[in-house]
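User: Design a sequence. Structure:
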């Protein structure tokens, strides 16, 4: 049950103090310019579609390549186009790059240290 003596009873966030539910909205006086937007579709080689929203810009100002939101591969504005950055080097995920920097033994040591710290703080 709500406390009947609560000081904020009948007020809305963003309204003037103590003006109640029918109060004047504080943002009503602010003048903000609305910017036209455009949604652009990008496709990676896996066929995933990513649709970021941009300010409505001229076509040359919109990026030709965008990172796929699902797999992280480069995505272009035309489906089925291979956008490999370097034809000799295949796409690598963040995990693959991390595995290149550490041996499995080093990775296990880092994991053990992190788990130990969490246990010491009683977070695990």
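Assistant: Done.
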């Amino acid at each position: 049950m709500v406390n009947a003596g609560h000081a904020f009873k009948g007020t809305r966030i963003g309204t003037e103090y103590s003006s109640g539910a029918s109060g004047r909205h504080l943002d009503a006086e602010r003048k903000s310019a609305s910017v036209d937007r455009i949604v652009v579709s990008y496709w990676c080689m896996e066929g995933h579609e990513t649709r970021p929203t941009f300010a409505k810009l001229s076509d040359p100002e919109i990026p030709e390549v965008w990172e796929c939101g699902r797999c992280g591969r480069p995505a272009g504005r035309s489906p089925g186009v291979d956008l490999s950055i370097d034809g000799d080097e295949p796409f690598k995920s963040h995990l693959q790059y991390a595995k290149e920097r550490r041996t499995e033994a080093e990775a296990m040591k880092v994991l053990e240290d992190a788990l130990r710290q969490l246990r010491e703080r009683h977070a695990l």
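The mean pLDDT is 78. Helices lie at 94-101, 104-120.
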